[in-house]
Structure formats: C-alpha cells, structure tokens
Amino acid sequence: MLGFLKEPVVVTAKINVNLVALTVMGLISRLWGLCYPRAVVFDEVYYGQFVSLYMKRIFFVDDSGPPFGHMLLALGGYLGGFDGNFLWNRIGAEYSMNVPVWSLRLLPALAGALCVPLAYQILVELHFSHCAAVGAALLILLENSLITQSRFMLLESILIFFILLAVLSYLKFYNLQKHSAFSGSWWFWLLLTGVACSCAVGVKYMGLFTYMLLLAIAGLHFWHMIGDQDLSNVEHEPISLFFQVSLLCHFLARGLALIIIPVGMYLSFFYVHLALLYRSGPHDQIMTSAFQASLEGGLARITQGQPLEVAYGSQITLRNVLGKPMQCWLHSHTNTYPIRYENGRGSSHQQQVTCYPFKDVNNWWIVKDPGMQQLVVSNPPRPVRHGHIVQLVHGITTRYLNTHDVAAPLSPHSQEVSCYIDYNISMPAQNLWRVEIVNRESDTDVWKTILSEVRFVHVNTSAVLKASGVIGASLPEWGYRQLEVVGEKLSRGYHQSMVWNVEEHRYGKSQEQKEREVELHSPTQMDISKNLSFMAKFTELQWKILTLKNEDTEHKYSSSALDWITMDTNIAYWLHPTSAAQIHLLGNVATWASANAAAVVYLCLSLWYLLRRRRKVYDIPEDAWQLWVSAGGICGGGWAVNYLPFFLMEKTLFLYHYLPALTFQILLIPVVLQHLGNHLCRSVLLKSMFSALIVAWFSSVYFVYCTFSPVTYGQPALSLTELKALRWKDTWNILLRKQ
C-alpha cells in the first residue's frame, strides 16, 4: 500500500528561460525608482481625484470612460492604506506622507512590465521564430514612451496589457482549435479572451477597437471553419449531422465567451462602482433626482420621507430633467417682464417665470384642481394621473402659471410663460396644463415624486413648458440672469429640456397664505421609498458618460493624430522645482521610425504579392503567405483600428492616445524582418549582411533608449547643454531652466 514511497517523487517542469528573463527585465525597467518623483505627475492630478473619491465612497462621473480602470488605481491606494486625504490641485505638488506613492503606481507599472513577455508570446503564437519574438519583446522593453506611461498612476499601460492579453489568449485558443477543441485549455483561453476584452473596454473605450478586431477575426475564422473539408464529410449523413451539431457548439461557445461574458463583466464593473460609491458628492447634481435620492446624503437627506404620489394640493418643486449645462428649477418672483424689451418688442408685463439654478423658496408650486378652490390635499389624497388637467399655483405669490400668444423675451418664435396678473384688459388667463408622464408604463399611471418624468402641455395653445435657458438663453439684468422658460410648440420637435420631475414634495395642509408660507419653509417628514434598480442606475450613468462632454479647450501639449506618426510632439510630465530634472513622454525615435518603415514595407509587399498571386505567380510558399496575412491582420489591423478612429474624434488629443496603436506597430517590425530574412535574402552573403544590419539597427535602438532615459525616469538631472542636445526636433518642448 505504501509502495509508492519507495521511489522519490519527481516533478519535471519546463521553464522558458527567454520568457523568465524578459519578465524580470520588464519588472526592473518599470519598477526601478517607482516612488520618484514623489510629486504629482501630469494626469495623476486627474486620476488621483477619483482615487480619493473611491477611498471616501463619494459618487462621481468621469466622462472619459468606464470605471474599471479607476477601480484598479483605487485598489492600489486601498492596498497601500490611502485614506483619500490629499488635495489634487496642481501638477508638481509634493505628496504628503499619507499618500502611498509606490502602491498607487504599482498596478500600472506591473501591467507595463508584463507587456514585455506578452509581446514575446504573441509572436511565438503567430508561429514566428523565438529570435523574432525576443526582438519584439526587447523593442517593447526599450520603448521610452511605454516606460514613462507605465511608471505613474495612469491607465494606458493597463489598457495595453489587457489588449495584448486578449490577443494572446485568442491566438492560443485558435492554435488549439484543430487538435484540442473543447478541451480544458481550449475553454480557458477562449474564456480568457472574453474576460480580457471586457477588461480592456472597462479601462477605456479605446479597448473597444481591439475587441471589435478580435470579433471580426473570430467571425472570419468561424466562416472558414464552415467550409473546412477536414471537419466535414457531406458524403456520409451521420458524419454530416455530427458536423452540424459540432458547428453549432462552436458557435454557441464563441457567443458565450466573446459576447455574453464580456457584456456581463462590463455590467459587473458598474455594479461594483455603484456599490462602492454610495455617498453624495459634487458630481451627482448632473444626475436625475431619482439617482441623487438613491445616494446617501445630499438630495436624499432633503427628500427623505416625502410622499410618493403627487396629489391635488401637493406642494412641489420642479427640476428640469436635462440638467446641463446646469441644473435648474421652475421659479417665479414678484418682478414682471418689462413693458418693452431692448429691441422694441413688447411683453405682457406679467410676473416673470424662470428656471433658477439654486434651491429657493420661490421654486415651490402648488398643484391645484381647476374645478376646486382649495390648495390643500384632501383626505384621502386624490392622486394626479397621466392626462389630468391641473393648474400650477406659485406658492409664495399665489399666481397661476400661464402662457399665451405673446413672444418670449429671448426666443421670439416661442410663447412667453408667466404667472398671470389680472390687469383688467383683454388678456384672459390661460392657466390650464395637461400632465403627460413621459416614462409611464400605462395611460393610468400616477404622477410620482422623483420617479416620473413629466411634460406640461398647455391646454389652450398645445405649447409645452420648456426651459430654453438650459440650452443657452439667460435673461438680462431685469431677469437677474436667470434662465428663460418658454412655451414651445411640439411641432418644433421634442427636446429633453421640455421634461420635468418633482424633486421636493409635501402634502399641503394650510389653506391660509401666511400659514402656507411657513409650511413652504419647513422640511417634510413622511414615508417614501425611491430606490432605483441597478439597471436603471446603470442606464442613466452609462448615458451620462457617453453624452456628458466637458468643453474641450486647447491644451499646451495637445496634438493631432498626424503628429503622432513622426513624433513631432512631446508632453512634459514633470519638472523638478529646483533642478533641471524632468520627465517627458517621448518615444524611442529609432523604434518609431522603424515601425513606420515596417508598416510601409508590409503594405507594399502585400500589394505586390496580391498582384502576383492574381497572375498565378506564387513568390512564397502558401504556409508563408498565410503566416504573413495572419500576422498582418493582428499587428497591422491592431495598429489601424487603434489609430485611424482618432481622425473622426472631436476631442482634445494627446500623444499617449497613440500608444496602443504603436504597440501593435512595434510587433510588426520583427514580422517584417523575419520575412525579409527568410524569403528575400536567399544567399549566405545576403543573410550575413542582413544579420549585421539588424545588430547595428538594434544597437541604435538601445543607444536612443539610453540617451533619453534621463527624461524617461527623471534622473539624473541634466545640464542646460545636455538638455539642448536632446532636442532632436524643433517641435519638441524640452524645458530649459537658466541655472
């Protein structure tokens, strides 16, 4: 029984020394002196704010992309014991002792370091030689721009890591396809492809480009599988039926791994994000009232205990749903429109109605039943439903919301909205409004606090109450620079500025005006539940991320996509406050030029081969052609999908946006070099000369890396003469400080 103990237990393991050595070198290059400088570097001032908000569980919205990347940076802060207390207000600010700099920068640095062995493995899985794979990894290792970007609390290195991991996983899965389909390793690499794709998209939406590329490649491979004669035999019906079932299983497996799982993971990023950030903060004002009320503090503190159903006699504030460029509430005050405007047009001289961007007692309105005089809620309350006709009475002045065929002050094609004053002239009150619940589930829905988005349609003129000032029209001094409100014809189109929701709400109890004014100033205390589902919160937050855009301003270091290819631009990341030590985002000039040359050579050779093959002339063997095409699809396609879309984007662009595309272009260099060496250098002499040229070229890559390493790592500090010598292009902005 214990006979197995007579022999020693032997474990045999295969260790790829190349892979281990490359990984170690990658870690050293990215982790060395990681805490230097102990100061805020470039976009750390931006991402650090979000890390602090995560530490304090305060809700925020970042229009630059999904939350997964921010959560990874926050994880570094959490592991380092960061409490979130640091003022991220300027680049170059010294970090206080409570900020774990090494921990905050660790995950981006690890991601950048692991890109080196990933590059090696991708070339191996593309069936190129280990020499070519080592060359690709060393080029990534010695690329100054990738080193700089991965050594700080930034997201590009994490994005590139997940992109390369997705590519490698798919290649490993594809290479297992013919001999080990549906095996454990086959499933592992297929599932990891989907996971890595979702992580890439979750870090930045730029990851979507590579995800779509891999989906297209997977679709093309599946299309080839359908016609693969090795997998099917139509002459035998049982085998044909087996092939059909197998094909369906392959399709379902890919759908599960490459679509369903990535979508599920993407949703999970937002679920964790919303679970962590449950406290109200400065960013939640752009969200709907329902969303704000779901957060701890802020609006939830104000609206806690409000009645859910709006009834006749309810006292309400109405917030415009659009909420940008600023939130505002329907408002009125005792001042009237001027008899004549500056352009000579006349007004009704009625009481002004505006949209006011601050909470104020004059934002309160009373929902009145046109058939009754009372301004209090009956017992039991009579709820207002979709389609009901109401009057809106201003709480403080008791005048009725009104619109008529008089031009609005700033929007002459729209109707003026006012609170009606009876001047005993031929201008009768027109103060009946139909309540339309935009997000209703049925035509009998009850108007609900916070949850219902409503439109007020004027009964007499069919005009819709609209906050036109939200989209750019502020009243002059006579209107206290408040935002214009108009009656807009529905025929002119629907706009979100026509939609309102009840934010604060109480059941009115006082019929007398004096008592009612006291009541309007007092808080509400009644039971209500306004919890939003996760999907409702996700949909709203996702829409805000996609549509909320900060005003793009010209930045000193912004650039165009055309500047990136030839690296005509750089970014100064950090400057030492006293010495000339500085850090720049600058690439390895030799590598960038070689990558561009490789892309041109690949394109020209591909066109030449295609033309020759069209004439039935095959210059290279079929397996070499397939290898050439597949490598180009991954490397050249990866460069194209990560670069060309920037020409269509209307946003401020920086050099670091090019780094994912550059990574794929670098992988193309050893692909082209091996192809040239194998198929164009046919004699021994040519091969020897070609090898010598490669050694000389690679020496130049290393020389450029060493030359620019002082501005890659920020040390040692260079003299004024040495800094001037680094300005290889007139367009580079090397910071020169008089010493």
TrEMBL record:
The keyword Transcription does not apply. Its EC number is 2.4.1.109. GO terms for molecular function: dolichyl-phosphate-mannose-protein mannosyltransferase activity. SUPFAM superfamilies: MIR domain. Residues 307-370, 381-438 form the MIR domain. It is a multi-pass membrane protein. SMART domains: MIR (SM00472). This is Protein O-mannosyl-transferase 1. It comes from Erpornis zantholeuca. The gene is Pomt1.
